[in-house]
């Protein structure tokens, strides 16, 4: 991946400082000259955080980094204490300027490109699709996340603070999310994460989103149907038929009332009928309220029971653990007042003097008790869920009864205010009841399409689940096939050993054996003999100087492999103080050997890889180096070799 730094411009309170970069840029000199600040500001422009030195705290305003990518040059300006950058690329009428987040995305900022942050923009301008990896390494249905440019830069920028304390976050002590990200980067470089894997993971991510959306839609439709008291097309048809039968009954009542009036028979007044109906509704509401109160009481009782079981289970486990621990403790003094304990008879507790009846619980008995407690907890959770479902149904029924009772009361009040004949009032009420039932039947009938929609959505969901299963199976086969081919991993081992030997790392020879086990990718070096069990790793190296060389050589090996495989790793290697813990005079062989390795690679394999180096002393290449070298000596207070901020004197 073409990624060449062109220049860094520091905007300071009293002017600007520009630093131009070459094929190899070598900054060296005394401490306090601002060497490390150069690299930290590069990282800051690329989205990193920064701790400003005292001089930078006083003077720093903003930084602008120019980077040459596949599709042209981009300048990235980041003001001090800002979480956004201003990116500019292109020229003339085709020039663009964009403000976007340095790291945390907040939606697409460049329409139609998927660019949400600086990392995405750098990938987009390099014609590279950002690699996607699963967030969870244990769940097959986990959603995916992008590997960002920040993740790749772990293997491109070896900063001074971590060069001898962390092995690219592959250590077991590193945060798990960083450890998994670092492994993903190596898989990406080695080729275990190829283009087909990326395509399949993108398809799975899309299918997962569709599945979640369909599930939410189905749940919403089912909830609507439950609220109206129907859950299937058959129930809707039965409900509609029942309502129409009730309406037909009212029409029959109207006809019967008409015949009785014709025969001059007495007809009850509508207000009396409505009063009786309202009374029945009140009784039904009272029954419902009592039932709801009983369920709430039972629910509270079951919930308290559940909490008691959970608390007792926890106390029991703590008691067993405490008993197991304290049984083996031989107390010599009182744990409360620290005075010496008196002699006790055999079989008595040495603390309280009572008969010692401590028995270690049988593990089988403990397992049975634990299983019974879990079964009872699961049973109570199920009962509470049933209570919730019943409460929902009864409250829905209560709301429906309240609405019906309110309508009946309203109609009764209207009937009382009218002075109509018994026949007329009865007819009006019956007509209203019949019309209300027919309208309700019409409304419920209109819902008949919802169960059909639910079935259609469930069929679509089943298709998506089937596709996900097939894609996961294919993805698993492709991953296994990619990881079964150890050619690239073996090449990385060979490169790493070659770098260690050529850099003159003490105790390592060309006859040693390097192992990089998957999935940890934590490099190990063994002696040449199969019977030799001593292993050299970043953790077992006691020397800080060997740690810096060990880590630097691994980064160089990764870049050598990336060059060979044309992997999308930025062609940039920044190393801050590889001789941090090494004396250039006492360990001359390692000092010269390491830089000789870099210069030889730069003349060959690293022709297109830019190197930026910082150290205490300068190691010059051979006289006829086939690359451009920029070397800058930096010393505070030296006009001939000025520090990063030439005018700064600390005042």
From TrEMBL:
<feature type="domain" description="Rad50/SbcC-type AAA">
    <location>
        <begin position="18"/>
        <end position="226"/>
    </location>
</feature>
<protein>
    <recommendedName>
        <fullName>Rad50/SbcC-type AAA domain-containing protein</fullName>
    </recommendedName>
</protein>
<dbReference type="Pfam" id="PF13476">
    <property type="entry name" value="AAA_23"/>
</dbReference>
<feature type="coiled-coil region">
    <location>
        <begin position="190"/>
        <end position="217"/>
    </location>
</feature>
<dbReference type="InterPro" id="IPR038729">
    <property type="entry name" value="Rad50/SbcC_AAA"/>
</dbReference>
<dbReference type="InterPro" id="IPR027417">
    <property type="entry name" value="P-loop_NTPase"/>
</dbReference>
<feature type="coiled-coil region">
    <location>
        <begin position="461"/>
        <end position="492"/>
    </location>
</feature>
<keyword id="KW-0175">Coiled coil</keyword>
């Amino acid at each position: 991946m073409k990624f060449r730094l062109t220049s860094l411009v520091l905007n300071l309170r009293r002017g600007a400082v520009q630093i131009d970069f070459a094929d190899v840029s070598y900054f060296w000199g005394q401490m306090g000259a601002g060497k490390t600040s150069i690299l930290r500001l590069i990282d800051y422009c690329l989205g990193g955080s920064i701790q400003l030195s005292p001089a930078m705290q006083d003077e720093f305003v903003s930084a602008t980094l120019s980077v040459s990518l596949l599709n042209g040059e981009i300048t990235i300006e980041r003001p001090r204490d800002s979480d956004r950058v201003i990116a500019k690329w292109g020229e003339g009428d085709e020039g663009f300027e964009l403000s976007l987040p340095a790291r945390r995305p907040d939606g697409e900022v460049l329409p139609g490109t998927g660019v949400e942050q600086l990392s995405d923009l750098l990938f987009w301008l390099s014609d590279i699709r950002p690699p996607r990896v699963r967030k969870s390494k244990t769940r097959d249905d986990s959603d995916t996340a992008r590997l960002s440019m920040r993740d790749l830069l772990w293997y491109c920028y070896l900063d001074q603070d971590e060069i001898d304390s962390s092995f690219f976050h592959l250590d077991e002590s590193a945060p798990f999310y960083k450890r998994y990200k670092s492994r993903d980067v190596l898989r990406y470089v080695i080729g275990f994460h190829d283009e087909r894997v990326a395509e399949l993971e993108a398809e799975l991510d899309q299918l997962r989103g569709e599945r979640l959306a369909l599930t939410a839609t189905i749940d919403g439709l089912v909830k609507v149907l439950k609220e109206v008291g129907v859950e299937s097309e058959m129930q809707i048809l039965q409900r509609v038929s029942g309502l129409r039968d009730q309406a037909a009954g009212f029409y029959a009542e109207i006809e019967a009332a008409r015949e009785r009036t014709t025969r001059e028979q007495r007809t009850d007044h509508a207000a009396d009928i409505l009063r009786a109906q309202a009374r029945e509704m009140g009784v039904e509401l009272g029954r419902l309220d009592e039932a709801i109160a009983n369920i709430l009481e039972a629910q509270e009782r079951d919930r308290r029971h559940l909490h008691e079981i959970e608390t007792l289970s926890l106390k029991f486990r703590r008691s067993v653990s405490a008993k197991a621990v304290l049984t083996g403790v031989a107390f010599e003094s009182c744990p409360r007042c620290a005075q010496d304990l008196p002699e006790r008879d055999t079989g008595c507790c040495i603390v309280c003097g009572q008969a010692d009846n401590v028995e270690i619980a049988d593990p089988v008995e403990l397992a049975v008790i634990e299983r019974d407690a879990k079964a009872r907890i699961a049973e109570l959770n199920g009962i509470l869920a049933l209570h919730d479902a019943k409460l929902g149904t009864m409250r829905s029924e209560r709301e429906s009864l309240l609405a019906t009772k309110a309508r009946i009361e309203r109609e009764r009040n209207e009937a009382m205010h009218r002075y109509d004949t018994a026949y007329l009032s009865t007819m009006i009420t019956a007509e209203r009841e019949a019309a209300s039932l027919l309208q309700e039947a019409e409304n419920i009938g209109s819902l008949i399409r919802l169960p059909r929609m639910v079935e259609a959505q469930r069929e679509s969901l089943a298709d998506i689940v089937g596709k996900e299963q097939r894609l996961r199976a294919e993805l698993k086969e492709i991953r296994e096939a990619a990881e079964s081919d150890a050619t690239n991993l073996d090449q990385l081992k060979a490169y790493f050993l070659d770098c260690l030997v050529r850099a003159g790392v003490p105790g390592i020879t060309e006859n040693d054996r390097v192992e990089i086990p998957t999935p940890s990718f934590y490099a190990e070096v063994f002696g040449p003999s199969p019977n030799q069990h001593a292993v050299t790793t970043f953790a077992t190296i006691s020397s800080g100087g060997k740690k810096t060389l060990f880590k630097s050589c691994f980064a160089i090996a990764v870049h050598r492999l990336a060059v060979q495989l044309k992997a999308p790793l930025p062609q940039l290697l920044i190393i801050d103080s590889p001789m941090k813990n090494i004396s250039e005079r006492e360990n001359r062989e390692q000092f010269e050997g390491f830089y000789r390795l870099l210069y030889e690679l730069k003349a060959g394999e690293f022709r297109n890889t830019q190197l930026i180096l910082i150290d205490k002393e300068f190691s010059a290449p051979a006289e006829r180096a086939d690359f451009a070298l920029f070397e800058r000596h930096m010393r505070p207070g030296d006009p001939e070799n000025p520090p990063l901020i030439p005018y700064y004197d600390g005042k």
